[in-house]
Amino acid sequence: MTGGDPILDIRGLATEFHTSRGPVRAVDGIDLSVGPGETVALVGESGCGKTTTAFSVLRLIPRHRGRVVAGEIRFDRLDLATLDERSLRRIRGNRIAMIFQDPASALNPLMTVGAQIAEAVRLHRGLGRAAARAETEALLRAVRIPEPRRRLDEFPHQLSGGMRQRVMIALALSCRPRLLIADEPTTALDVTVQAQILALIEELKQEFGMSVLLITHDLAVVAEVADRVAVMYAGRKVEEAPVSRLFAAPRHPYTRALLASIPDPDADTGGGAAAQPLPEIPGRVQPAGSRIEGCAFAERCAIAADICRQAAPPEALSGDGAAVFCHHAAPEDAGQIAAAVEGRL
Amino acid sequence: MAEADPFLKRFGRNRPAAIGAVLLLAVTAGGLLAPMLSAPDPWAMVARPFLWPGSDPRFPLGTDMLGRDLLAGILHGARVSLLVGLIATAAAAFVGISIGALAGYYGGRIDNLLMRLTELFQIVPPFILAVVLVVILEPSVGTIILAIAAISWPQLARLTRAEVLSIREREYVEAAVSVGMSDRRIIFREILPNAAPPLLVSTSLAVATSILLESSLSFLGLGDPNVMSWGTMVGAGREVLRSAWYVCAVPGVAILVTVLAINLVGEGLNDALDPKRRRR
């Protein structure tokens, strides 16, 4: 764990989308903090609100689509949830940068990659044309793009997926942000390129002294790069723990079920017949917007009792910043009990 | 410049578009060189009236009922038609694209206000509106351009708004917001360039429509009385339609050829800029 005050501190964040059937709450009271030099992973299945959380931090949700309705987003003694647009624009790209899921669609198809990065450099650092070009070349080199000078004048469609994501990262780094928000940065890439991009982000984090908020649904990615993990389910945080702890002794039934559904490459080497089917979580996530009285996961939980459907579970804190929201959370140190419950899942 | 080459190639490979471009260049050249190719004054009575085309080599297109050289009228008329078409369209495009972009980008109340304003122009039949404007403002080249621009912009505004609405949701626009770009920069650098193909095509077709409108106004006697225009010529010739139909037909063909040429070029642009064809 890295010490010091958190760089980003989200308290009670709630974000709603406007729909024809009224407001739908996509994020419902999230607490999350990212310390200096720390990589925090936000995981959960599609539609659980993790991307919405990330977008809320920079208020990237268009006004006609939705808005942050409650909570604070503390960054640098400012509250990004209520900050005026002009001041927010100085933070975007400058102090907090973001990389997106699909680098193919996150770059302007009509501008060369050099022009796009140079534009951001000039915008935030006030450099001249030539200096911006030199800086852009240095950035492309920093993200390990071979022949950076030649790439400057190429268009996004001339680059491979991995290269485009490197360009996106260069764009994000252009102003040496303190926090990098990475929204599923490797989902659109193939596996070998994924590993390279993750390694790159990790190296650059050290080099540039950034913190990283990583949004992903890929637990393998989490295990590789994160220091701390927050698990989201249906717009709420269900568990948060240091990464080793979460993988060794998950306390929330949802986390346990998620971990149980990771294929174990060593388990079925013995031949096809003996292979066990992967366990899956029964049921589906409640449609967004349905009012949930108790625990959001109760309907799909193997150990749910009446109380789970009636009352929202309290936060059970433990040392080193871990927390779990469950009426029947497994005890902290109980690998064995967890395993026993797993049998029932 | 790297992009221009394949674009021109695609455009050139399209036979009708290439023909349209050549015709349009010919009309433009004729207009520019009018004083050199024919009499400097198209109103001057230079020969006997009702000289049929081809009967006198000095007046290849003949003369009208007042003995005015039709070739001179056509060439000078080309200047007016092209000038009115281009300036009116440029003005309409400027207003329409600005209003459409603002409405589409900001949405909400601004969108509502601007779109209701646009509809205000669209609820009156456009040609009637143009006639009324020209009559009130006194016919002149300036007021005709104003009237044509006033009835042409709403369509471009609606198209621009629709394009901006869809492009605004693209990820690269989100990415631009996330690096702290201002609204103005996002509209001009990210959104409008990506909306350009359909706008360019529409705008080029609007030039043809503007030329037709100018001719129609002139035909109705609402043209600039000091300027020779194709519509004026057709209008003047209609009284002798039965005895000397060529007086109407010659300027009529000029209108037809020019409008057709612009349409062919517009269609060619449409094909050349279509991303589905571009991918090949």
From TrEMBL, chain A:
Q: Which InterPro entries match?
A: AAA+_ATPase, ABC_Ni/Peptide_Import, ABC_transporter-like_ATP-bd, ABC_transporter-like_CS, Oligopep_ABC_C, P-loop_NTPase
A GO molecular-function descriptor: ATP binding
Q: How does it sit in the membrane?
A: Peripheral membrane protein
**UniProt keyword annotation of Electron transport present:** no
Subcellular localization is given as: Cell inner membrane
Query: What keywords appear on the UniProt entry?
Result: ATP-binding, Cell membrane, Membrane, Nucleotide-binding, Transport
Pfam families cross-referenced by the UniProt entry: ABC_tran, oligo_HPY
- ABC transporter domain: residues covered: 8-259
The entry assigns this protein to a family as follows: Belongs to the ABC transporter superfamily.
Q: What is this protein called?
A: ABC transporter ATP-binding protein
What organism is the protein native to? Paralimibaculum aggregatum
State the taxonomy lineage.
Bacteria, Pseudomonadati, Pseudomonadota, Alphaproteobacteria, Rhodobacterales
From TrEMBL, chain B:
Q: Which domain of life is it from?
A: Bacteria
Protein location? Cell membrane
Concerning CDD domains, the annotation shows: TM_PBP2
Domain ABC transmembrane type-1, first and last residues per copy: 78-266
Concerning InterPro entries, the annotation shows: BP-dependent_transpt_permease (IPR050366), MetI-like (IPR000515), MetI-like_sf (IPR035906)
- One family from Pfam that matches here is BPD_transp_1
Spans through the membrane = 17-37, 80-106, 127-151, 199-222, 243-265
Main location (coarse class): membrane
Query: What is the recorded membrane topology of this protein?
Result: Multi-pass membrane protein
The UniProt keywords, alphabetically, are: Cell membrane, Membrane, Peptide transport, Protein transport, Transmembrane, Transmembrane helix, Transport
Q: Which family does it belong to?
A: Belongs to the binding-protein-dependent transport system permease family.
Q: What is this protein called?
A: ABC transporter permease
| Originating organism | Paralimibaculum aggregatum
